[in-house]
Structure formats: C-alpha cells, structure tokens
Design goal:
Elements (H helix, E strand, L loop, with lengths): L1 H15 L9 E3 L5 E5 L2 E5 L15 E5 L3 E4 L5 H8 L8 H10 L19 H12 L2 H5 L2 E4 L3 H9 L50 E7 L9 E2 L9 E5 L15 E5 L8 E2 L3 E4 L2
Parallel strand pairs: 4-8, 7-11
Antiparallel strand pairs: 1-2, 2-5, 3-4, 5-12, 6-12, 7-9, 9-10
C-alpha cells in the first residue's frame, strides 16, 4: 500500500511539475552568473493612451505567462561574455574606454571593463552565447538551458507587478536612482548593479544597455488576450527593450520597444540579459 502511494505521489509530481515555492528563488550557475526566479502570472502589456511619449505600437492587452522562469539579475558583462565566447565585441574597452574616460575626466578605476555590460553585440551573438553557456558540462548536467527572454517575459519581469510608466512609478525624476541614462551616464555604460533594483531584484533593467529579446519584431501587438506570446519569427528585425545610457527618460519606460537588425553588431548600446529554464 505504501509503495503504491509513493508511486502515485511521484506521478503527481511528474504531471504537475515543481511549484514556485519548491524551486530555488535565487541561483548562481557554474560561472558565477546570478539568477532570480520569476513567477508565472498575468499582466497588462503596453501603455495607456495618456502615457507621456508612448508609441502607437504599445497598445495595451492582457498577457498570461504559464511557466515560471529564471532571469539574470544583471546584464551579461564583458567579462562573462569573454569567459564563455573567448572574445569581447564591446566598443567600450581598452584604449577606447580609457580615451572616453579621460575626455570626461572620469576615474578609470570606477569602470572596470569586466564589470561593464557587454555591448555592440548582435542578436545572433547573444543567441550563440546562450547556446555555449547551455553546453558547458556542469550546466548541461544540471539541466539548465539558457536563452534570451521573450519580449513578454522581459516586460513582465521589468514591471514586477507595477502598472506605471516605470517599475518604480510615473515620476521620471526618480529614474536616476534606478538607471543609467542620458542625464547621468556621461554617455557611457556603467558597471552592472550600481543602481537600485526593481522589486524582483533585477538591476539595470531600465537603462545602461538596451537588451535583446528572443522574438522577431512585430509592429502590432495582439488586440485580444494571449498566453505565452512570441513575436513573429523569420524576420530580420529583432526586439530591444529597456532603454540605454544614451536614451532620454521617456525611452526607458517599461513599455518602450525598439527594432534592430538581428545581424547588426554596430549598436554600442545593445546588450542582453539571459533567461534560464531547468529541464531536469
């Protein structure tokens, strides 16, 4: 009888999976990257008609995400990218970084390149990084698979249950507490994690570098409620979210969307953060 009950219990676990509460809320992988567990749920994607500087492609609609997922606490750094890929595509490193800092009278000790977010990286390179990270022996053994977040996952995590223009509210005067953008960045990316995080513990998700999403760019959101949406695939345009060190305050809004060529690596403000799911 006990054996049958145990088998029945295992069947329930396999059928319904592990609950949010049973999963580690935070996780550090084999190369030291930190992740936080994002709970499945629903939210209103897009922006209301009266939001300052909104775009017409931000029409509001109900989105449900049916699975929990992990998301990087920080944007991928130059040091992490070079560790996994053996190279660093970033513009702001070496002589270029030193020159920029000298011109702006900034201390080079405050800008260690290994802590700066990787930038000037194409969508293809970001996807390759995720694949290479997934293939590391320890990550593969643990069943951890890495990818770019979908646009819906990105905005859901950025908002962290907020309904305002920014995850902290509607007043752009507070943005400097949470983000590196046009008014406080000296037009330079900064080391990750120096500003305040959102309520789910994500740093620099508004500002510093714009972040690639996995979707192809679709200029029109669905009008009806959707579950686990993915943008149109097979297009040459990808999606960037989150604003960057060169952007104005209204470009760092939670709903702001950008379209970039997926093959273009010439944007010095484009980086990414990594999503992760555990398959075992």
């Amino acid at each position: 009888m006990i054996r049958l009950q145990f088998i029945s219990f295992i069947g329930i676990v396999l059928q319904f999976g592990v609950s949010f509460a049973q999963q580690p809320q935070k996780l550090i992988n084999s190369v030291g990257m930190e992740f936080v567990l994002i709970p499945k749920g629903s939210f209103i994607r897009g922006s209301p008609p009266n939001e300052l500087k909104r775009h017409s492609n931000e029409n509001m609609h109900h989105v449900t995400l049916t699975e929990d997922y992990y998301l990087g606490v920080y944007e991928v750094t130059q040091g992490q990218f070079e560790q996994i890929m053996g190279r660093n595509p970033s513009r702001f490193q070496g002589d270029v970084l030193r020159s920029e800092l000298k011109i702006k009278s900034l201390n080079i000790a405050d800008f260690p390149s290994e802590k700066l977010p990787v930038e000037s990286v194409s969508w293809i390179e970001a996807v390759e990084f995720c694949r290479a990270l997934s293939n590391l022996a320890e990550e593969a053994r643990a069943g951890r698979e890495y990818r770019l977040p979908t646009e819906a996952e990105w905005e859901y995590a950025c908002r962290a249950e907020s309904h305002t223009a920014y995850f902290f509210g509607d007043d752009p005067k507070q943005l400097g507490d949470y983000a590196w953008y046009e008014e406080n960045s000296h037009e330079l990316p900064h080391p990750v994690g120096l500003k305040k995080p959102n309520r789910w513990g994500l740093y620099d998700i508004q500002g510093n570098v714009t972040e690639w999403c996995s979707d192809g760019f679709d200029d029109f959101y669905p009008k009806l409620a959707v579950k686990d949406p993915i943008g149109v695939s097979g297009l040459s345009l990808g999606i960037g979210r989150g604003g960057c060190f060169r952007d104005t305050y209204f470009s760092c809004r939670s709903a702001k969307r950008w379209a970039f060529s997926q093959e273009d690596d010439g944007h010095r403000d484009l980086g990414f953060r990594v999503a992760m799911t555990i398959t075992k």
